[in-house]
């Protein structure tokens, strides 16, 4: 967690204040024409996978195949998360030819949390922060050489991050 | 205009480590406000990092990514002074773009 705040913390509060206002005002002004440019440059946003309720459905929708557990996928998550709204989770792997990495939280209303495309030349290692509704298994999926590998870890949540 | 995107990209010679922090509510659509009304979903769906005209990292996000999202990754290549272009688009079609210099 210290890494996260390094460098950012000094200016973060100021930015928060400023950016909050800018985001609200800015929404109306930003030209819509930018959006199609993104869509063309990337693969389509996997809307169905993000709407899937269970992790099995999400994986199936995202990849069309199933994952096998692998000790080459290293999932780093806290044993206990005091705040389910911000759970730092990272994954790295020693597998070669990684093309994508996905994070799923089993007990969330929609299991799939994030999916990352890893182009050639980018390290197969991602850190991010996720919301967790309650104590749940967190699953990292690594797609390498056309196959899926997974790692699972239970994270205990004392305060949920999805309201209710 | 102040950007919603804060990026630190550091080259260590062979690889460049990128940390990004974005200001965004990332409302999941499951949270109720003080009046008991559901706050509609509002979250970043796609976040792209480009270096030298190529995507080096693409994130597809759901509503389960935390408010003011943070992400860290690294890629091979990238020299001090190179440009790294970052852009996101959310589920309401809003976008923001920033360009950071690799340090």
What does this structure look like?
The complex is a heterodimer of chains A (164) and B (103). Chain A has 5 helices and 9 strands; from the N terminus they run αααααβββββββββ. With 164 residues, chain A is an alpha+beta fold. Chain A has a domain of 112 residues: SoxY domain (Immunoglobulin-like, Sandwich), CATH 2.60.40. In chain A, the strands form 2 sheets. In chain A, strands 1, 3, 5, 6, 8 and 9 form a 6-stranded mixed β-sheet that branches. Chain A has a 3-stranded antiparallel β-sheet with strand order 2-4-7, with no helix packed on it. In chain A, a hairpin with a 6-residue loop joins strand 5 and strand 6. The longest helix of chain A has 21 residues. With 103 residues, chain B is mainly β. Chain B has one domain: Immunoglobulins (Immunoglobulin-like, Sandwich), CATH 2.60.40.10. The radius of gyration of chain B is 15 Å and the shape is elongated. The model of chain B has no long low-confidence stretch (mean pLDDT 90). At the A-B interface, helix 2, helix 3, strand 6 and strand 7 of A face strand 2, strand 3, strand 4, strand 5 and strand 7 of B. Strand 6 of chain A pairs antiparallel with strand 4 of chain B.
Features:
heterodimer, A: 164 residues, alpha+beta, Immunoglobulin-like, six-stranded mixed sheet, three-stranded antiparallel sheet, 5 helices, disordered N terminus, B: 103 residues, mainly beta, four-stranded antiparallel sheet, 7 strands, 0% helix, elongated
């Amino acid at each position: 967690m210290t890494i996260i705040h390094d460098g950012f913390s000094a200016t973060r509060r100021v930015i928060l204040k400023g950016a909050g206002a800018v985001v609200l005002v800015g929404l109306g002004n930003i030209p819509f024409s930018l959006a199609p440019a993104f869509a063309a440059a990337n693969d389509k946003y996997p809307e169905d996978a993000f709407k899937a309720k269970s992790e099995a459905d999400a994986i199936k929708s995202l990849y069309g195949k199933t994952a096998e557990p692998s000790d080459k996928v290293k999932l780093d998550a806290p044993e206990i998360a005091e705040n389910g709204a911000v759970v730092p989770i990272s994954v790295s792997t020693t597998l070669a030819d990684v093309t994508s990495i996905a994070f799923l939280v089993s007990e969330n209303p929609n299991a799939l949390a994030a999916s990352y495309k890893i182009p050639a030349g980018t390290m197969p290692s991602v850190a991010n922060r996720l919301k967790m509704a309650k104590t749940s298994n967190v699953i990292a999926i690594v797609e390498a050489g056309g196959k899926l590998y997974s790692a699972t870890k239970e994270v205990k949540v004392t305060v949920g991050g999805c309201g209710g | 205009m102040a950007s919603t995107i804060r990026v630190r990209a550091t080259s260590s010679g062979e690889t460049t480590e990128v940390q990004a922090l974005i200001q965004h509510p990332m409302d999941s659509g499951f949270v109720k406000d003080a009046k008991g009304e559901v706050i509609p979903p509002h979250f970043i769906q796609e976040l792209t990092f480009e270096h030298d005209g190529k995507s080096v990292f693409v994130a597809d996000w759901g509503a389960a990514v935390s408010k003011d999202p943070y992400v860290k990754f690294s890629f091979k290549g990238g020299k001090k002074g190179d440009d790294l272009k970052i852009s996101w688009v959310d589920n309401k079609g809003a976008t923001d773009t920033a360009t950071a210099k690799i340090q």
